[in-house]
């Protein structure tokens, strides 16, 4: 399968590209800088891809699928990623995405997957299980834009152009050349600076990439024009630092744990029914151990 992946230099894009390559698929990486080598296990073809309305469109010809993981935002921020330009934020991430999807459909791409977010659900009642059957009620502009994009893609869906949205939770995982999600937290803790607990749902980047591949290869009637939740663990900064303690022996006080019963988990029954099995606590512990090793090797 030949797959064009937008946002290939981002955290999710990198995991998706690598996961596809390792499993023998051909990848075309959509990037903003085609002169920079993508740090993955083998060379990949790169094409210029931008969400700007006047940018040239990438060549989709010959591609079987399009994974749209690109998202234009203020660096380091998703919620609040609009900065001082909410209209430009919406124009790029909704209109710009629609422009790419329309081009992909015209070029004969058969499947299109959009990386959406749990933010489409908005602030549901405390502790509620978030299911794909819920009516989205996004509160942040980030969530609004993701939901608008989901609907725009679904409207393009046909028997010959299968569309699907993957609503991802927080994504963690170690990648060469990129900071780990909890690297700043870990450095503060190891330096003895005060840290506070924060609860959230998480999924490892490679598990998210495995979900992407499942959706690209599943029977079309099972996934077409649907949304799927992707989440694995309900965890916290307290849990992260507790694992860090086990890995490096640091004994600074851990932050007081919050009551996680008030935080809504995501129902992943729909995705698991396709055979998706994330790494759970075993993968989480291994990842924090790898992070500890990285930090220990710093000069």
Structural notes for this entry:
With 299 residues, the chain is of the alpha/beta class. The chain has a domain of 200 residues: Rossmann fold (3-Layer(aba) Sandwich). Helices cover 35% and strands 17% of the residues. It contains nine helices and ten strands. The strands form two sheets. A seven-stranded parallel beta sheet has the order 3-2-1-4-5-6-9, with helices on both faces. Strand 7, helix 4 and strand 8 form a beta-alpha-beta unit. Helix 7 crosses helix 9. The radius of gyration is 19 Å and the shape is globular.
Task: Report a brief summary of the structure.
The chain is an alpha/beta fold. Helices cover 35% and strands 17% of the residues. It has nine helices and ten strands.
Which structural traits does this protein have?
alpha/beta, Rossmann fold, 3-stranded mixed beta sheet, 35% helix, NAD(P)-dependent oxidoreductase, NAD(P)-bd_dom_sf, Lipid_A_modif_metabolic_enz
């Amino acid at each position: 399968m030949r797959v064009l992946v937008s946002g290939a230099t981002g955290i999710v894009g990198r995991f998706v590209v690598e996961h596809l390559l390792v499993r023998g698929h051909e990848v075309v990486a959509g990037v903003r800088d085609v002169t920079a080598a993508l740090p993955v296990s083998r060379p990949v073809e790169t094409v210029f891809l931008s969400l700007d309305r006047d940018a040239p469109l990438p060549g989709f010809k010959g591609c079987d699928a399009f994974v749209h993981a690109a998202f234009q935002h203020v660096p380091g921020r998703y919620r609040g990623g609009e900065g001082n330009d909410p209209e430009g934020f919406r124009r790029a991430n909704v209109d710009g995405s629609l422009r790419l999807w329309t081009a992909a459909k015209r070029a004969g791409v058969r499947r299109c997957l959009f990386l959406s977010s749990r933010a489409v659900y908005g602030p549901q009642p405390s502790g509620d299980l978030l299911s794909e059957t819920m009516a989205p009620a996004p509160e942040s502009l980030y969530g609004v834009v993701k939901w608008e994009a989901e609907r725009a893609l679904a409207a393009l869906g046909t028997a010959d152009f299968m569309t699907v949205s993957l609503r991802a939770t927080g994504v963690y995982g170690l990648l060469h050349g990129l900071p780990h999600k909890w690297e700043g937290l870990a450095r503060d803790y190891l330096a003895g600076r005060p840290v506070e607990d924060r609860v959230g749902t998480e999924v490892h980047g490679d598990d998210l990439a495995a979900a992407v591949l499942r959706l690209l290869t599943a029977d079309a009637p099972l996934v077409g024009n649907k949304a799927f939740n992707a989440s694995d663990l309900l965890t916290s900064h307290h849990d992260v630092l507790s694992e860090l303690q086990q890995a490096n022996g640091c004994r600074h006080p851990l932050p007081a744990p919050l009551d996680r019963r008030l935080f809504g988990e995501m129902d992943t029954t729909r995705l698991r029914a396709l055979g998706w099995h994330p790494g759970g606590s075993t993968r989480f512990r291994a990842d924090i151990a790898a992070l500890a090793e990285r930090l220990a090797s710093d000069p």
